């Protein structure tokens, strides 16, 4: 089976929720369970909340001030989840508008939380604050201070020329908001209408905490389909089009227009540095290399003998070349589809001491699940054939919908299906592997106790025989 790995889609914690398919999964289907009696005085409250689709909806920026009156969203049962999907909602009162702050109440009227409302989405409310207290300015600031403190005070990621994730959505209690710092610029990505409409206010609040001078705001990759709006890119006056950062002394240029995600993959930082410690004098292949993170660190920090980076996309590959030149490195860059390239290398009998497989997201919705698993299987089956016996392979998946256990199973299954290894007398079919370690995203990408989807990145380290 052949596949093409095209443009790497943006990655973020919101992608794990598969809202593009939520209409089918959690729509307002007829309820089978008996309806509880309405509380007294509630007979006029609407029972169902119909989706309000407005593709031409134009979001407007707003401040963080609290309105005098809040709309109310009624749910049957309390939940630990930061998301209130449409199927949980029993009614809405007060005519809240897209992006408004609302109260979340039980059917008996008990106030349990506040959140941001969006009738254009199947995820009707994103919870901001549990309990009775409203999320006022002080609350927003406290959440941002807590997030920055984790990275700066505990993780030591405060270097002025460095890069890190400052806010990781639900993991920092701010569902729908991702903030990366690149040198003195904040790159903000919003995955919800409510967060986008508060984007400038949040940027101006977090900038002095992070001690940055500029900001850029983007809406997430599928907000039109999932949130019902298209957000234009917002750029602070004087903000640069790109900056140069350093990762362990290695220089990278980060663009803010046209770059995937928020400009650079901070989540693989620790994995890049770990790999660099294993490749001295080795031949390294970096598949789906994007802007060259693994390849460049393998060559500069790891002192690999030979490094080849492969990616289908011309634009990020040109940036990879530029990053290599910034560090005065000699790396072979190949613009090619990873599947086609690997088949060619297998035919030629080419092998590498170390192979890195870091593809774009291959499962973006539940409807893509089986096809995405097959792509992961074929990708790893081919990559395993390029590893020298006794060599190392690092294989990754950023698909939040794919559990780690299933990812490991399909990688092991791919190893058994690679065929006999030439050069090894009486070798059985397939390759034998030893799993050395399993890792994930760097610690500036924490995981919330009520949102396991935050742990989207999976990295499996293997020795291959």
Q: Descriptors for this entry?
A:
465 residues, 11 helices, 20 strands, Transcription Regulator spoIIAA, Archaeosine Trna-guanine Transglycosylase, Chain: A, domain 4
Give the name of the CATH architecture of the largest domain: 3-Layer(aba) Sandwich
* CATH homology superfamily of the largest domain: Vaccinia Virus protein VP39
**How is the biggest beta sheet arranged?**
7 strands, mixed
CATH topology label of the largest domain: Rossmann fold
Mean pLDDT: 87
Content of β-strand: 25-35%
Structural commentary:
It contains 11 helices and 20 strands. It has 465 residues and is α/β, with parallel strands linked by helices. It folds into 3 domains: 40-130, PUA domain (Archaeosine Trna-guanine Transglycosylase, Chain: A, domain 4), CATH 2.30.130.10; 137-243, RNA methyltransferase domain (HRMD) like (Transcription Regulator spoIIAA, 2-Layer Sandwich); 265-464, Vaccinia Virus protein VP39 (Rossmann fold). The strands form 4 sheets. Strands 16-15-14-17-18-20-19 form a 7-stranded mixed β-sheet, sandwiched between helices. The chain has a 6-stranded mixed β-sheet with strand order 2-6-5-4-1-3. The protein has a 5-stranded mixed β-sheet with strand order 7-8-9-10-11. Helix 2 crosses helix 4 (199-210). The longest helix is centred in the N-terminal third of the chain and has 18 residues, at 137-154. The chain starts with 21 loop residues before the first helix and ends with a strand. The model is unreliable at 6-48 (pLDDT under 50).
